[in-house]
Design goal:
Distance between the termini: 28 Å
Helix content: 40-55%
Structural class: alpha/beta
Number of domains: 2
Order of helices and strands: EEEHHHHHEHEHEHEEEHEEHEEEEEH
Shape: globular
CATH topology of the largest domain: Rossmann fold
CATH superfamily of the largest domain: Translation initiation factor eif-2b, domain 2
Number of helices: 11
CATH class of the largest domain: Alpha Beta
Bound molecules: 5-S-methyl-1-O-phosphono-5-thio-D-ribulose
């Protein structure tokens, strides 16, 4: 399986997701500014992968910081990384985890602090893979045998440290012997479905068909789709789910056609400080992502453009939320708090 992100002696190595599938090239971020830029420009993307990148960004930042100003450096590093993308809560979760560790290391030598932060960042990555496997085990029984699974965006190995959330559930269902194939929404404008989901599932030999986003309704009505599984960037306490823009339309169409709509996400994607999804900050990205396709202009000059990167699916459309600790169903206020509190 593809290595999304790696800690190496030379820096943080990531597969460049802006270039896939045409080129599989790796970039090395040699300092925390480069890690922040990689997150901002979506060289690395997907909520859990952004979390791992942020943890490694903190580690490489402190590794390169002068002994006499570790505290000030830590603050600047965390601030820059936190300013990269606003919606996926895993970014802030990972930075907080590194901050808490740092605070507990007071009095240790700079070398000891650096070693502990580097180890923690690598631990965040290892845990993420284990969490995705656990999510797969919980989610696989929900996937109907002999049907097509529809997914939106890329919630796979590339969006995590490995295996994936939504695609992890699909992988686990295939590993359990279920005969399923996947419909991948193309996911305009960044094309995570056509470029990334299709690429990684093809490598695994999982039968995959790309559809454009506006074809989802047609196929959800056709009787072919057994369920929808997507990932999430932030889930509010009431079970409202922020995920890649277009997810909401798929969820409404799934409910209209009586098709289960599952969200697979780690507990680190829950934001129980927000009582509803209305409070989730939605990232607005460059209009160029909409008006240009691979650098070629496809819209008139001067035209107005909106480019929200995420939308929020109200909890009433969510059949269940699959986490590494089990499956939550409505009422989500109770089920999510229970899962968040359990270890
Ligand atoms: O803008 P992106 O590509 O970072 O958005 C990614 C998504 O919306 C994913 O579905 C989500 O992060 C879950 S990834 C396991």
């Amino acid at each position: 399986m593809v290595e999304t992100i790696q800690w190496t002696a030379g820096g943080v190595v990531m597969i460049d997701q802006t270039k896939l599938p045409l080129e599989a090239v790796y970039v090395t971020c040699k300092d925390y500014h480069e890690v922040a830029e990689a997150i901002r420009s979506m060289v690395i993307r997907g909520a859990p992968a952004i979390g791992v990148a942020a943890a490694m960004g903190v580690a490489i930042g402190v590794l390169r910081a002068p002994d006499e100003n570790l505290d000030g450096s830590m603050e600047a590093i965390c601030e820059e990384l936190a300013g990269t993308r606003p919606t996926a809560v895993n970014l802030f979760w990972a930075i907080d985890r590194m901050k808490k560790l740092y605070a507990g290391l007071r009095g240790k030598s700079p070398a000891g602090i650096r070693a502990a932060l580097v180890a923690e960042a690598q631990q965040v990555k290892l845990e993420d893979i284990a969490i995705n496997r656990a999510m797969g085990r919980h989610g696989a029984p929900l996937i109907p045998d002999g049907k097509t699974v529809l997914t939106h965006c890329n919630a796979g190995a590339l969006a995590t440290a490995g295996y994936g959330t939504a695609l992890g559930v699909i992988r686990a269902a295939v590993e359990a012997g279920k005969k399923i194939d996947v419909f991948a929404d193309e996911t305009r404008p960044f094309l995570q479905g056509a470029r990334l989901t299709a690429w990684e599932l093809q490598q695994d030999g999982i039968e995959t068909t790309i559809i454009t986003d506006n074809m989802a309704g047609h196929f959800l009505k056709s009787g072919r789709i057994g369920c929808v599984v997507v990932g999430a960037d932030r889930i509010a306490a009431n079970g409202d789910v922020a995920n890649k823009v277009g997810t909401y339309s798929v969820a409404v169409l799934a409910k209209e056609n009586g098709i289960p709509f599952y969200v697979a996400a780690p507990v680190s994607t829950l934001d129980l400080t927000l009582d509803s999804g209305d409070k989730i900050p939605i990232e607005q990205r460059s209009p160029k992502e909409v008006t240009e396709v691979f650098g070629v202009r496809v819209a008139p000059e001067g035209i107005a453009v909106q480019n929200p990167a995420f939308d929020v699916t109200p909890n009433r459309y969510v059949t269940a939320i699959i986490t590494e600790r089990g499956v939550a169903a409505a009422p989500y206020e109770e089920s999510l708090r229970r899962l968040a509190g359990s270890v």
